[in-house]
Design a protein that fits this description.
Layout lengths: L7 H8 L7 H15 L16 H20 L13 E4 L2 E4 L15 H9 L9
Antiparallel strand pairs: 1-2
Helix pairs in contact: 1-3, 2-3, 3-4
Length: 129
């Protein structure tokens, strides 16, 4: 298993809800997704490969939390198997069918908020700082 960029406590704070069952596995899988999205990103790391800039560490944690939140909302258990839905009702909102967006360069279905956290931090592929 690779690096895990967020803790269960950070996830609970980010979502404002208790952590889901299997939170450690979900965070690990979401961290793998973030790593895949950052394949060519350049940022300073320590001897363990962890980011040294607190802003980068915060962005990675936020992206992982957003990814877990997104996957949980999609009914995914972190495996990627539940990437499509037929019908969803949440209060007065009802959704049916789903069209997939274009695949990202990394091949990962990255949550929009995770993408935004990484983009804002200047970490997306091709961005060098």
């Amino acid at each position: 298993m690779g690096r895990v960029y967020a803790t269960p406590e950070q996830l609970a704070t980010y979502t404002g809800t208790p952590t889901p069952e299997g939170v450690e596995r979900l965070l690990a899988r979401a961290s793998e997704d973030v790593d895949a999205a950052l394949l060519t990103a350049v940022y300073s790391v320590d001897d363990d490969g962890d980011p040294t800039d607190p802003a980068v560490a915060d962005a990675l944690a936020a992206a992982v939390c957003a990814q877990v939140e997104y996957q949980t909302a999609m009914g995914d258990d972190g495996t990627g198997a539940a990437g499509a839905w037929d019908s969803v009702s949440i209060g007065p909102v009802a959704l049916s069918g789903r069209t997939s967006g274009p695949p990202s360069a990394s091949g990962v279905d990255l949550a929009p908020r995770a993408h935004r956290a990484l983009r804002t931090a200047g970490l997306l592929p091709g961005v060098i700082w």
